[in-house]
Amino acid sequence: MPKAWHLKSRPDGMPSADKFELKDIDLPSVAEDMIRVRNGWLSVDPYMRGRMNDVKSYVPPFQLGQPMEGGAVGEVVESRAEGFAPGDLVLHMGGWRDEAVVPAQAARKLPELGAEPQQFLGILGTTGATAYFGLLDVASAKEGDIVFVSAAAGAVGSAAVQIAKAKRMTVIGSAGGEQKCDYVRALGADAVIDYRAGDLLRSLSGAAPQGIDVYFDNVGGDHLDAALAVARNYARFAICGMIEGYNKREPTSLRFLMRVIAARIRIQGFLVFDYQSRMDEFYRDMGAWLKTGAVKSRETVVEGLEQTPEAFLGLFKGANVGKMLVKL
Amino acid sequence: MPKAWHLKSRPDGMPSADKFELKDIDLPSVAEDMIRVRNGWLSVDPYMRGRMNDVKSYVPPFQLGQPMEGGAVGEVVESRAEGFAPGDLVLHMGGWRDEAVVPAQAARKLPELGAEPQQFLGILGTTGATAYFGLLDVASAKEGDIVFVSAAAGAVGSAAVQIAKAKRMTVIGSAGGEQKCDYVRALGADAVIDYRAGDLLRSLSGAAPQGIDVYFDNVGGDHLDAALAVARNYARFAICGMIEGYNKREPTSLRFLMRVIAARIRIQGFLVFDYQSRMDEFYRDMGAWLKTGAVKSRETVVEGLEQTPEAFLGLFKGANVGKMLVKL
């Protein structure tokens, strides 16, 4: 009998394991244009925390008592959809469960890139695509640019650092603590700032004496302000996340916002979902970088469907290095 | 003997008339590729206050004891430059004086638009071009968009309102006080907000129940924050000025900055000087709008070179409606 994790009650603040319940599910029969998939890998991601609140956002909230969803990679075991056959490996959103029936339209056959299937949930998935399109499209970053990446040891940040180096940019990364800074240095960053040690703006000015052309923002707040302070003319900021503000209610305070005018700075927020139609570009480049070793992926793997909530909760305890995955 | 206003000493805070001195000048002889111009109209603008400080910005500071500069329109009286002949009317930067010798490259013959010459210092000059390129290029505003313009009774703001209406957009303007609000309404704005009366965000939400696609920012601060709060997906903000912050040292405090991500908002600062090569587009459209009456220009005229400092100082006392000009 297939099983799926259900949201039992909505967490308030940090979630705990008792909010989730593993229950048998009745899979619908496979109708026309549908496929049945046996999952091999599940993704757990920080953004899922937002879906546990009953708040409208760019993704609808999880419904109480209903099976949860998320990125998953699995093998087609039954198909009534053109172009999908048993044995095909697919990426889809029917995660948090071992088996799913999904519309073929909402599934994507894994491209032949010689990559491991689970990489399509990380460096070849949303994480990698966010870094790729954020840096190259939203921020129009190009060879020779001086790029600042905040939270550079994070999943998206570390991908952004490596993509920037693969494209021959100068990269400054920020991270908290010596160990994470060492990791960012090992990724190839030209300079690394420990935001826990000393004044951030002074550190950034020192690391980027000529200023920056691009800022890839995962943090907001002080990081964004420092980036505004040192931005060169026509700098472009891709705003991917502002984790500094996720858990507090105070407004963002910016001393250097007025520089957007004299320096003609462009600040652009984005969601990777808007780039679905351009994933082929991403697969082509990222596939090549993985092959040559220009980009390396790191994963933390937890085994067994039963462990899915633990894997998810681990995201907020620093239990992962790189992408957190569940292997079934 | 030609005369020019010189900066005698640098003002601290609000400038006063004793900082300026009118003195005879020795004009150089007209070398190759130069022209001599007898000025008919001088422009005085708020940005000139910044040039009186000894601070590097996007325009160099005025030098103490040297003739000042600024926009001017005059008649060529001597030319050693191809394409310029005595009698031609030109726009140039040799203002704050009655006669100037300038490189022909830095002068522009007034296009034949059937407009008054002094309009090239206002609605057909920097003021109008700032509104035009800020709205249509920087903010990519187009027919059907809902546009919010702050300081809509100001020189640039009132031009932006009229251009937006000429292009069939829905326009909400903000201004301070009943009289200015009436003026903005008379310009054709669909809704007007008095920012001195009541909570700005509540007023804007009421005036734009469907949100806004475009924000033309002359103010910054609370206005920018309210615009972030009500922005629709893919909204574009053109940041022209942030006058709220010009005279205070506190940082800008934004409660709704994080909306840039989920709503994919683009915030772009700009300077009109970057659009010099595209002035023909502007002349073509604005010339046509002035002819049909779709856009109207307002001017306040002060007479006589001796009155130039008074005209300039009047800018900070609300002495002008529309563009402030000096007629020689």
Protein model, in words:
The structure is a homodimer. The radius of gyration of chain A is 21 Å and the shape is globular. Chain A has helices at about 45-50, 125-140, 155-165, 180-185, 200-205, 220-230, 260, 280-290, 310-315, and strands at about 5, 20-25, 35-45, 70-80, 90, 100-105, 110, 145-150, 170-175, 190-195, 210-215, 230-240, 250-255, 265-270, 300-305, 325. In chain A, strands 3, 4, 5, 6, 7, 15 and 16 form a 7-stranded mixed beta sheet that branches. In chain A, strands 10-9-8-11-12-14 form a 6-stranded parallel beta sheet, with helices on both faces. Chain A is built from 9 helices and 16 strands. In chain A, about 45% of the residues are buried. Chain A is about 25% helix and about 25% strand. Chain A folds into 2 domains: about 5-120 and about 295-325, Quinone Oxidoreductase, Chain A, domain 1 (Alpha-Beta Complex); about 125-275, 3-Layer(aba) Sandwich (Rossmann fold). With about 325 residues, chain A is an alpha/beta fold. The two termini of chain A are about 15 Å apart. Strand 13 (about 250-255) of chain A pairs antiparallel with strand 13 of chain B, so a sheet runs across the interface.
